[in-house]
Amino acid sequence: LVHDRNISERELIRRIRGLTDNGSHEAIMGIGDDCAVLRGHGNSVWLITTDTLVESVHFDLAWHPPRQLGRKAANVNISDIAAMGGRAIAALLAIAVPDSEIDWLDEFLAGFVEALKEQGAELVGGDTVKSRDGTVFNVTIVGTMEGPDILYRRGAQPGDLIWISGPVGEAAAGLALLKAGAAGQAAVENKWQHLVKAHVDPEPQIVIGRHLARSGLVSAMIDVSDGLATDLAHICEASGVAAVIRATDLPVSEELAAAAGYLGCSPLEWMLRGGEDYQLLFTAPADREAAIRNLIGDKTGRTIYSVGRIEAGAGVLLHLPDGRRMDVTYQGYDHFSSGRNQSD
Amino acid sequence: LVHDRNISERELIRRIRGLTDNGSHEAIMGIGDDCAVLRGHGNSVWLITTDTLVESVHFDLAWHPPRQLGRKAANVNISDIAAMGGRAIAALLAIAVPDSEIDWLDEFLAGFVEALKEQGAELVGGDTVKSRDGTVFNVTIVGTMEGPDILYRRGAQPGDLIWISGPVGEAAAGLALLKAGAAGQAAVENKWQHLVKAHVDPEPQIVIGRHLARSGLVSAMIDVSDGLATDLAHICEASGVAAVIRATDLPVSEELAAAAGYLGCSPLEWMLRGGEDYQLLFTAPADREAAIRNLIGDKTGRTIYSVGRIEAGAGVLLHLPDGRRMDVTYQGYDHFSSGRNQSD
After folding, report:
1. Which of A157, A219, A275, B286 could make a disulfide contact with A2, Cβ separation 3.0–4.6 Å?
2. What is the CB neighbour count within 10 angstroms for residue A26?
3. Interface ipTM > 0.90
4. B302 pLDDT exceeds 70?
């Protein structure tokens, strides 16, 4: 989900966090990571995450067909389970609708349950209420995994490499194409299809997340929901470190480059601050580079990308080809493009 | 919560239920009871419930001070845990607000966490997003209990007595007083205080629910959130039985009678269709009447009320002093007062 990124939201989260009680008897981790973690039997833990999707804020019914929206409502939350290294087992869905649009909801529900089934998870509870205006969904996903394998946002160390499980910025490009009207029904069949799907029907990276968690090779992990610059800033804040992204190491597909040219946009901006990619962003000691690349290549056939390095300090810096380093912490490319930068 | 009671919502819930997979490996109970039930270690289970509160539909900021609203947001969901016989251990809170009202939210959060602490539960996760219009909260509560003790809606048998853990209709009376402007700040200090509190700051009946679940004396249970007639209809539908409520056995406090007189309302209407009481509604074999009354009296000092009897058949009937029986299934007193009735 594209969350409100203003200070007051982070301030609010800080206040909520001040009210929580981490490390108590039953909760291992409270607010401050992708999921809450509750102790299960033996080494096993339960992962729980909740997320709200608001019409016109998080989705636009003009380009989210109900079936794909149902899939996305499930998958963006399953992605939070992936971000810890777990697997999803159950979901609860609360729907607030202004009036009863049964046909639309049937399709939404079919997509929601289809996405759950792809993960071996099931719909176990829910709630339907009237809303005053617009549709609001709340999704709660329950997952499980072995406790010692959990990958938190904290844990990144200076010297670690920064990895992404796939290209970022594609969902932002897809959204830009949809907004520009360049990806209508006919166009979806053609060259923008992959980018539009990245926005409309993203895939949670459960399989890669589970392999990484069980490998013991990784020091910190999160999913890219709010954009690379912001989500990497979460890892840095939780770990007490800085991060440097090398602009030239970010993978740019031909499609992304073509869409950027077509719309006159910057692919770098999409890659840094485009949210909703739901790729995994993780860090690992540099000497495990080959082991990680081989593990994921062997198990999944997927290419993953090393895009920078953790350093001592704080914040997220973008290393440009000319050697300059721009602070892109949280504010992402907006902050960078407004001219405030730091050279070092 | 006062849910939308129209057919389309029940139709929607039926459709959602058709998509769920009860009795699968990890879920013991899916949609169709107060909580979803997931297998835990050994005999223990996890209870999960989620609920959405929409401004102007479920709460009115004019008479819900933020601290009490925070308490209520927690407690109405904790009540769903009580309705199975469990205890609450953790909560997740998702907040959608149109803009940042930090002071208001601070008070709301303080009330939310206060109510959790009263139950030994803690806030472990959450989400904040922007809403387009109005405030929407979603609360997910996780509870636990021993699996064999779970009290479902199904299980009521002909001949069972119908019980309530305390008076119903008081929250509806409190709301009517607030709507009539008869319970402003000064008036809250006086004779309506108890009724107004029943609406603004209801108590979940966790302690009574746990005693009942562990006693093995009870056949079915639910909490009164949508009104006695509707929630009893849920038990009847799930159990395949009918219920007869004796109007003269419903407890009417002096305050309730006085408020009804003051406003020119029917206490019976409040008792039958007034939602949000959050008392427990349960059934048990008639020969356990003394055992149940003594158990709750000894353990809690509370008086509970036997208000009717389960019969073979379907639907909820109201037995009036003149011997007539009115069908009040789901539609509650509205249905009754519209003149449609059945004599038998």
Report:
1. A275
2. 18
3. no
4. yes
Interior angle at CA A31, CA A27 and CA A34, nearest 5: 100
| Cβ atoms A122, B21 nearer than 8 A | yes
Task: Show residues of chain A in contact with B30, CB under 8 Å.
Answer: 122-125
* Tokens matching residue B238: 């799930």
Partner residue opposite B126 with nearest CB, options A31, A93, A105: A31
Burial of A313 (0-12, 13-18, 19+ CB in 10 A): middle
Burial class (CB in 10 A: 0-12, 13-18, 19+), B321: exposed
Beta carbons of A125 and B57 less than 8 Å apart: no
**What's the alpha-carbon Rg for chain B, to the nearest Å?**
20
Chain Cα centroid distance, residue A344: 30
B23: helix, strand or coil: coil
Q: Count the Cβ atoms, other than its own, within 10 Å of residue B273.
A: 25
Q: pTM for the full model?
A: 0.83
**Residue B9, CB-side half-sphere exposure with 13 Å CA sphere:** 18
Q: Is B191 exposed, middle or buried (0-12, 13-18, 19+ CB in 10 A)?
A: middle
How far apart are alpha carbons A187 and A184 in whole angstroms?
5
Helix (H, G, I), strand (E, B) or coil at B28: strand
Task: Give pLDDT tens digits for A59-92.
Answer: 888 888 899 999 999 999 999 999 999 999 999 9
With beta carbons less than 8 A apart as the criterion, state whether B125 and A49 touch: yes
User: How far is the C-alpha of B282 from the C-alpha of B162, rounded, in Å?
Assistant: 6
The whole-angstrom distance between A284's CA and the closest CA on chain B is 26
Q: Of how many residues is chain A composed?
A: 344
CB contact under 8 A, A12 and B100: yes
Give the 3-state DSSP-derived string for chain A, with helices as H, strands as E and coil as C.
CCCCCCHHHHHHHHHHHHHCCCCCCCEEECCCCCCEEEECCCCEEEEEEEEEEEECCCECCCCCCHHHHHHHHHHHHHHHHHCCCCEEEEEEEEEEECCCCHHHHHHHHHHHHHHHHHCCCEEEEEEEEECCCCCEEEEEEEEEEEHHHCCCCCCCCCCCEEEECCCCCHHHHHHHHHHCCCCCHHHHCCCCHHHHHHHHCCCCCHHHHHHHHHHCCCCEEEECCCCHHHHHHHHHHHHCCEEEEEHHHCCCCHHHHHHHHHHCCCHHHHHHHCCCCCCEEEEECHHHHHHHHHHHHHHHCCCCEEEEEEECCCEEEEECCCCCEEECCCCCHHHHHCCCCCCC
Mutate to test the interface with B, among A16, A49, A113, A142 (most CBs of B within 10 A): A16
Q: What is the pLDDT of residues B201-257, one digit of tens each?
A: 999 999 999 999 999 999 999 999 999 999 999 999 999 999 999 999 999 999 999
Amino acid at A62: A
Q: Which residue in A37, A126, A132 is closest to B50 by CB distance?
A: A126
Whole-angstrom Cα distance, residue B277 to residue A324?
64
Closest CA to B32 of B41, B23, B40: B23
| Distance of alpha carbon B179 from alpha carbon A306, whole angstroms | 61
